Amino acid sequence: MNGWALDSGRFGDAAAILTGDLCLSFSEESFTEIGPRAAAGTPARRIFNVMRAEVMAGQYLDILEEVAGPVRDRAGSVERAKSIIRYKSAKYSTEHPLALGGALAGAPSGLLNGYSGFSLPLGEAFQMRDDVLGVFGDPETTGKPAGDDLREGKRTVLVGFAINQAPPSEADFLDRMLGKPDLGEDEVAEIRRVMIECGALEATESLIAELSDRAFEALERLPLEDVPLVALRQLAEAAVSRAA
Amino acid sequence: MNGWALDSGRFGDAAAILTGDLCLSFSEESFTEIGPRAAAGTPARRIFNVMRAEVMAGQYLDILEEVAGPVRDRAGSVERAKSIIRYKSAKYSTEHPLALGGALAGAPSGLLNGYSGFSLPLGEAFQMRDDVLGVFGDPETTGKPAGDDLREGKRTVLVGFAINQAPPSEADFLDRMLGKPDLGEDEVAEIRRVMIECGALEATESLIAELSDRAFEALERLPLEDVPLVALRQLAEAAVSRAA
User: Fold this and answer.
1) Higher per-residue pLDDT: B19 or B2
2) Helix or strand or coil: residue A54?
3) Hey, are the CB atoms on A18 and B66 less than 8 Å from each other?
4) Is the pLDDT score of A227 beyond 50?
5) B-chain residues within 8 Å CB-CB of A104?
6) Distance, CA of A192 to CA of A74 (rounded, Å)
7) Which residue of A has its CA nearest to B18?
8) Do B1 and A60 count as a contact with CB atoms less than 8 A apart?
9) Does the complex come out with an ipTM higher than 0.90?
């Protein structure tokens, strides 16, 4: 026998799952090695535990919406997409990491709450910016092929607005196109047209602007010294900038 | 649209992976809640970390051998199968759990090493007993259909001996049959015949007996009081008994 036996794809899946499990374990090992400040019962440990569970819940909401989205009520599509980005992305990418750093440095709970007022809307705006770029971005700048999010069937807030606001026949078209692995350039262009004409792109941009404003206002209210304030402001600007 | 969109099998796989990740996280949360005795740098934490990494390594060796076994050298099939059961099963099911209990109760390192001398061969014998029952056991007693391990393509020590000791044409036959999902009763019976005639079943039983003896001898050398000694002896006997 010359090649490998059985199904190489199944082997690859299994090896990838184990690699992920190993990385999940090692991330926790590294965190535990921090020592007493990350020990059982500390604020940092509580944040770490919540963060890890919430990202899995968010990931589940994401894959659920990919398969169930087309048969769920269209009116709820935006709220469902917001839940997904909150748990899968904003809490995991900005809110909890900032709180974790604060907790490890001994920040009191009032300051940690203040951080959330900044980091949660920032993370949501960041993810929505990323989702807009995934459909309308220049592949030269973003580094990923335009339309890949559509081919994956990702139910972003942008998609939610489109499903909700487009005429029924165009919403049906979107449902058919989302998750189609061989989506062509013409189809992607047509999806873009629908998203623009029904006002979904505009609604998403408005929401990004609103969330960004809320984040920056909360940032200015934080009792921070100049250096951390400027650093957080620069990070926040990079996160929601329109370029890439 | 009436049913769910996209691939329900893919959704099920993804949901199962997330559920597994969540369970892996929760197991670590529970362990951490033990508090100072399981904190960073303690013997218990070291055992926990090693256990978690090793079972994933063992699982990887297992799936690797399922796909690569048929093209690897037959002479090494027994040693590879032994590595798999050591890391995937014996260390995870008996050696590390016993050491973990000992470490949490404050056992000195000498006693922990003594535990390993008992629990590692016991765990290996236990897994090999399980593997023999998976092919030769009575489904009424074992509760699992005979031959399912063969349909899955599990490369057990029993299979390793058979691949190694059977005439080449019969070893080729085994390679073709292992991992065949629709393996029939006749084929399972023929595999059993090959395993008996080439001496693989006998070699496996000898190894189980040798490992069991080594475990029980090591148990009697442990400086334990009557109650834990009797309890461990009963557990060990249940683990390697021939019945189920």
Assistant:
1) B19
2) helix
3) no
4) yes
5) none
6) 19
7) A56
8) no
9) no
